[in-house]
Recover the amino acids of this structure.
């Protein structure tokens, strides 16, 4: 089994009620169910969310140590957290994929969302496709599964 960590940052626990015009009407449990139900063969998906930067960094450290691929929606931390960026860099510098995902397209929104301090060290970035972005990221990981 290939384990994949799907990590979600601050305020994503409020999906469903938070700005549904931007993020849709489905909540985090619906995302978890979608990804678990549609996990590629041989993949075990672990969906987590936290509002706490230090907890998110701890999960990335554990991903480095266990060489677990990561799908990361850093939420607002995307735009300013150098601590998170450095932790994410530990993952990709170890040769473990880390895919940055955004439900919305930050580039089509406020100017402060146009900057990502994560993208420069991410393996790749998917944005603007709603929950489908996570599935696209999983699909990519399944395509490269022989290298994981
Ligand atoms: C987000 C975009 C961020 O700008 C925002 O702060 C979020 C969610 C997205 O998934 O579209 O919380 O990462």
């Amino acid at each position: 089994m290939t384990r994949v960590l799907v990590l979600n940052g601050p305020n994503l626990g409020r999906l469903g009620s938070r700005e549904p015009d931007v993020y849709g009407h489905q909540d985090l449990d619906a995302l978890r169910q979608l990804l678990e139900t549609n996990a590629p063969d041989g993949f075990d998906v672990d969906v987590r969310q936290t509002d706490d930067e230090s907890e998110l960094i701890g999960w990335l450290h554990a991903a480095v140590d266990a060489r677990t691929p990561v799908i990361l929606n850093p939420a607002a931390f995307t735009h300013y957290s150098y601590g998170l960026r450095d932790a994410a860099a530990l993952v990709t510098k170890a040769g473990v994929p880390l895919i940055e995902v955004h439900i919305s397209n930050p580039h089509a929104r406020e100017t402060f969302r146009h900057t990502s301090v994560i993208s420069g060290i991410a393996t790749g970035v998917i944005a603007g496709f709603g929950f489908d972005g996570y599935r696209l990221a999983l699909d990519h990981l399944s395509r490269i599964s022989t290298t994981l």
In short: The CA atoms of residues 89 and 121 lie 6 Å apart. Residues 53-66 form the longest helix (14 residues). Residues 11, 73, 75-76, 78, 102-104, 106, 113 surround DQA (CB under 6 Å). The longest strand covers residues 2-8.
